[in-house]
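INTERNAL AUDIT FORM
Audit reference: QA-55
Scope: verify that the stored structure record matches its stored sequence.
Auditor: D.O.
Record contents follow.
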Amino acid sequence: MQTYRAPVREMRFVLEAFGYEQISSLEAFSAYDMETVVALLEQTGSFAVSTLLPTNKPGDQVGLKWDAETGAVTTPPGFREAYGALRDNGYIGITGPEAYGGGNGPETLGIVMGEISSSCNKSLAMCPGLTRGLIEALEHHGSDEQKQTYLPNLISGSWSGTMCLTEPQCGTDLGLVSTKATPEGDHYRLTGTKIWITFGEHDLTENIVHLVLARLPDAPEGIKGISTFLVPKFTNGAKRNPVKCIGLEHKMGIHGSPTCVIEMDEAEGYLIGEPHKGMKVMFTMMNAARLHVGVEAISGAEIAYQTAVAFAKERRQSRSLDPAKRDRSASADNILVHPDVRRMLLNQKATNEGMRALALWTAMQIDLSRQASDEKVQQEADDLAALLTPIVKAYCTERGTANISEAMQVCGGSGFTQDWNIEQYYRDTRITMIYEGTNHIQALDLVGRKLPMHGGRLMQVFGARVTDMIRSAKEDPRMAEFVEPLKAASKTLTTVTMELAAKGMADAEEAGAAATNYLSLFGLTTLAYVWAVMAKKALDEDSAFARTKLKTARYFFQNVLPESESLVSLIRAGKANMMAFDAEELDVA
């Protein structure tokens, strides 16, 4: 059973709470006022349910076909038609630059539309998602000729893009990349093997354009010697480039998404940006991807939650612990009478809604950082986007995956079967904690780069937003129940941050040992902030929706935020116990 309804009312509320008018008032996005955005979301929701959702299960159960002789990959039944509809309706290029045929929409719009599409078919939605990342990389780093050649086709969806980073000997450590690029006239010849390449080969588009990390003959060692190249499947004149899929990975989930081993044998490629400056290009694409990966996890958690609620409303089992709530007309009560079922559902609801708000707030900062006319607004938005991106990627994927597991638990044995699809949502979402930079790498990025960046300015900008919220709520006694725990959480985060900075400066392993739990603590604190913002808006509305929102806010502050206390203890425990073991002691005795 697949059940899904796009949470458009919820999305609108979040956009209003965080001041979407700041975005729509920008000249670049003036065509996307709130009513236009809501209409697009409703249209996307209808399209996703009618066109994408029916292809989700075949994508998982039928999967892909690979021809070992030709390297061709055939996508699951219905994928080509669904992708064609995505392309023809203009969804793929809606945030692309207008000069090359795009809709020039804000990143914020792309995020909410992407959540809806990913909920209905994550595997298929990954293809246009990667293409958008390549579009962004070309916008920022491509030559005029490259933009003219590639952007119109990528934005229209007739071509798709990939990101070719990983090799058998290097994953997280990209300094170990060994793919070679040899100059030849106005282009280069690339030779090497890339692995785990999402949509590296398929039958959805006329051409596939690979963004490839490689080394020039004079490249210095490590990441300072990496350059970035465009390697199309078909070069000018539709000539087949010697870039081939030599195998597909057999994965736990995302069975409809081809994860390819790509071999290049003197393939023709074109340098993007400057020689040996490829990491800059890669991070442009990667940072966009990391935000979208966080949203992928939210999308999986959302459809799993909706499925669990639908199941719980139908399922009868055992009697209520409160005799007054027992249904005398039936032999068992609906499981929603049981407190633990409520606990599991409300854990999901409170964190799913908080994570969506966090992701949208982050996307809005990206839009402001690119288009705001005020330099201070632009700089603060850029700082917030840089700080929050690893949190969205890591915290939301960790929590989103856990929420899907909890949705499965609500459904009991039925949740473990294919009948309710939650087991697929779990398998499809689990990868989000790994790809586009593992979650521990995000934690190290937060602790090692983002916190000390610009003398701690990023953290100061976030702290100022929290302080502003607390001050603005002083005159409204109704906000006390939300602001007081936010204030305490913020104070705790500041204290722990200073403690960790001091320990990390003395011993880098201390920072490494605490980083993952620290990111989780930061994630909970950011959710406390966004929930305070949403509570403030809900208090000013008189509707059933707003009253439910306030109940959910109370649940978060009283039943979820206290998790931070255990995280603080884990952070302070340090490295001593985990580093005390010899490697041999990890073996089974």
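Auditor finding: record pair retrieved intact. DSSP finds 18 helices and eleven strands in the chain.
Action required: none
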